[in-house]
Amino acid sequence: xxxxxxxxxxxxxxxxxVIPGLSGGTTAVxxxxxxxxxxxxxxxxxxxxxxxxxxxxxxxxxxLAILACSNxxxxxxxxxxxxxxxxxxxxxxxxIPMIWKRATKDSxxxxxxxxxxxxxxxxxxxxxxxxxxxxxxxxxxxxxxxxIQMFFCSALAAVCMIIPGISGSFVxxxxxxxxxxxxxxxxxxxxxxxxxxxxxxxxxxxGAKIIDFFLRRYPQATYFSILGFVLGSGPVLFxxxxxxxxxRTGLPLAGSIAVLIVGIVIVLVxxxxxxxxxxxxxxxxxxxxxxNV
Length: 293
What we know:
Number of domains: 1
Structural class: mainly alpha
Radius of gyration: 19 Å
Helix content: over 70%
Shape: globular
Low-confidence stretches: 278-293
Largest sheet: none
Mean pLDDT: 79
Distance between the termini: 13 Å
């Protein structure tokens, strides 16, 4: 049952990583497995068996989700862009109370708001001026330059994917390779998928070690930085709706607000279940941050 549960967690993370503006790291925080995910990746060489037992079902679920949803997500964003993004905004906002509780678990100091403000500002800047997403040209052939480009873009996106609040897919969108990556996945273009996969693997391994270091040394400052990224994700998605001329009033707006509320409620209900399980002690022991599942 634990394996199946983690496969479904991987599916949720995989879907998040396909959608520009939604963060797989945020989804891991919502599912309450973020610390363990980062720790398992960071300790892959030290504790390979323990790490792989946790990571393999997540990778399997994420891979299946990315393969299955690459075409579906593209279709939904083309036909129901505003509705889908309002739902994602609801999911993001619903996770804020949980992150706040983790950031203020031990104590709260005013200076902790500084990293929160900085990361919030970074997210807002991504939809302003030259950082706004532009129309992409789909790459279909692999040259040495394309190989290098796809490798480094995928590596940077992978680092961002494991940081809550930052969308790796959105980073690909900023660099103009998102459509190319989605097309390569949906068409199983092995030549293009090779540098993408190599870059993603390198980015995840390198990025996880950095994040794990900061979570161990500066946990509260790190969580407040994460909170800033998450707070900024909502305005980023709403800004994208505006800059892409997908904002609609009337019935579409009413429906979008409704799904936004649904997204908030889903996360809050999930969080309350987690709290009840902790209180009831269903796991039979008190879990540390790195053991939370």
